[in-house]
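Suppose you are handed a protein chain with no further information: no name, no annotation, nothing but its sequence. What can you learn? This example shows the usual starting point.
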Amino acid sequence: MSDRLEILLTNDDGIHSTGLRALYDALSERGNVTVVAPATDQSACGRSMSHEVDVETHELGYALHGTPSDCVVAGLAELGPDPDIVVAGCNKGANLGEYVLGRSGTISAAVEAAFFDVPAIATSMYVPVEDAPLSQIDLATDDYAEATRVTSYLVEHALEAGVFDHAAYLNVNVPVADGDPAPVEITRPSKRYEMDAERDGNRVHLKDRVWERMDPESLPDPEGTDRRAVVEGRISVSPLTAPHSTPHHEALTTLVEAYPDSARSTND
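A reasonable first move is to predict its three-dimensional structure. Written in structure tokens, the prediction is:
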């Protein structure tokens, strides 16, 4: 594009995260980037909204004491210039599968932008973990090289290519950078869901067991899904819409048409 893009950048890991800084530096080479990001970590907050939040100026833009959705609303409606595109990320940890679409703060920021009719990209990085929790794994800016490369490419070209004529936002998941660019696969979110709960006295422990089987040799997710692509070392790009809707459902139509007779018989 001839003119520099206006880009609103946010995340859910917080304005001080390495992933956000890595994307800011990369995207600044392609456009004018305004950051409106949470002042603190807001991971897995979904589309939680606040009625009133404090805001502070920051060297990158603005730090909001609120959620990613707060940041998008504040950025689009008040704090930033009218952006051509919203970018959320780069999240430390993957956002894969249908069940995370309403749970992830990163994806929720992209969904919020979609309701403003602004194209959006949510970028997350799959970090394989074994014994140590993800929060204890230190990542450097170079580790995000794959994420910044593909996100920059999509930001620069997806608008002109007409990608957002059909998709409201893109959910992008990348492997950790290891040198050569990874191949890209257009995917669909995996349907795998394995939440579990166990009671221990007065407490109930909730466990997401989806992440316990991430070996490429035994991964149960089928070809074409976001999880399989990322685990096998490919970049996953899922074009998605908001709101999530279903096709016309004949069975529901029949059920609704029968409701008046049922309601009348109940009152008789």
